């Protein structure tokens, strides 16, 4: 009986392409979280994924393509986090905005590599990435429109635009400070997520109540909504 020699295994990058694509994305996020964009290289991503240096190009073309895809997925994930905040907030427009803010920071803390990449100017030239980013911003804008009772298609007033950018700035700045460890001194045992649960909700509540009070005092201005049906 002649013993047949089994065929040699195929190189890893020639099969399970779906798994390899995900592995490259995961390796990119981990590398970005550790070293930042300045420490990123396709060669290191390939090494961590256990494939040849040329393998990432088969899926993403070049480093820009891989980074743009990671950023696009990040915006989709952030959009889902904001929508989940809407669901938690229920029928109260203020609560929905507050929960959106908590979801924003929570996403950043769970995905620091992706979050640090999302707002890189060069990547925003990618059309699909720009669409994903606009979708995320649209969720926040709709939250502010609900808060002020401004229907879609109706221009926001300058004060309402300031409120929109102010809410974004609060959560975005909080996320960056938390990721940089600036709040660790105030967290028991350096547990950053404790501050997310105990400090951020109250901070956002105060900020939004302040916006509501200012709007209510303004003459001839639409008053922010109280409890309204969630969309």
Protein model, in words:
By secondary structure, this protein is an all-alpha fold. It folds into two domains: 46 residues, Homeodomain-like (Arc Repressor Mutant, subunit A), CATH 1.10.10.60; 154 residues, Tetracycline Repressor, domain 2 (Orthogonal Bundle). Helix 1 crosses helix 4, helix 5 runs antiparallel to helix 7 and helix 5 runs antiparallel to helix 10. The C terminus is likely disordered.
What is the compact description of this entry?
The chain is mostly helical. It is built from 10 helices and no strands. Helix 5 runs parallel beside helix 8 (158-179) and helix 7 (127-148) crosses helix 8 (158-179).
Blueprint (SSEs and pairs):
Elements: H1 17-35, H2 42-49, H3 55-60, H4 63-89, H5 93-110, H6 112-117, H7 127-148, H8 158-179, H9 192-198, H10 200-217
Kindly list the characteristics that best describe this protein.
231 residues; single chain; disordered C terminus; Tetracycline Repressor, domain 2; 0% strand; Arc Repressor Mutant, subunit A
Percent in helix: 55-70%
CATH architecture of the largest domain: Orthogonal Bundle
How far apart lie the N and C ends?
A: 73 Å
| Count of helical stretches | 10
CATH topology title of the largest domain? Tetracycline Repressor, domain 2
- Secondary structure class reads mainly alpha
Number of domains: 2
Topology, number of strands:
0
β-strand percent reads under 5%
What's the helix-strand series?
A: HHHHHHHHHH
Q: Looking at this structure, what is the CATH superfamily of the largest domain? A: Tetracycline Repressor, domain 2
Q: Label the overall shape.
A: globular
Unreliable stretches (pLDDT < 50, length at least 5) are 5-15, 227-231
Mean pLDDT: 85
């Amino acid at each position: 009986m002649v013993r047949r020699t089994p065929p040699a295994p195929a190189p890893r990058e020639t099969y399970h392409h779906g798994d390899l694509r995900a592995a490259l994305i995961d390796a990119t996020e981990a590398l970005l979280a550790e070293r930042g964009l300045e420490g990123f290289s396709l060669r290191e991503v390939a090494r961590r994924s256990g494939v040849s240096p040329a393998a990432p190009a088969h899926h993403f073309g070049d480093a820009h393509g891989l980074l743009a895809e990671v950023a696009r997925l990040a915006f989709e994930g952030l959009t889902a986090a904001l929508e989940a905040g809407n669901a938690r907030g229920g029928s109260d427009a203020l609560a929905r905005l507050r929960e959106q803010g908590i979801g924003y920071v929570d996403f950043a803390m769970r995905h620091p590599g992706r979050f640090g990449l999302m707002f890189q100017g060069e990547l925003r030239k990618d059309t699909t990435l720009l669409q994903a980013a606009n979708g995320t911003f649209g969720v926040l804008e709709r939250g502010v429109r609900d808060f002020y009772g401004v229907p879609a298609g109706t221009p926001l007033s300058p004060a309402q635009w300031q409120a929109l950018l102010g809410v974004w700035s609060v959560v975005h700045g909080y996320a960056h400070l938390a990721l940089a460890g600036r709040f660790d001194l105030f967290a028991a045992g350096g547990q950053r997520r404790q501050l997310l649960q105990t400090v951020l909700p109250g901070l956002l509540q105060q900020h939004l109540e302040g916006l509501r009070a200012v709007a209510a005092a303004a003459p001839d201005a639409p008053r922010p909504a109280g409890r309204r049906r969630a969309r």
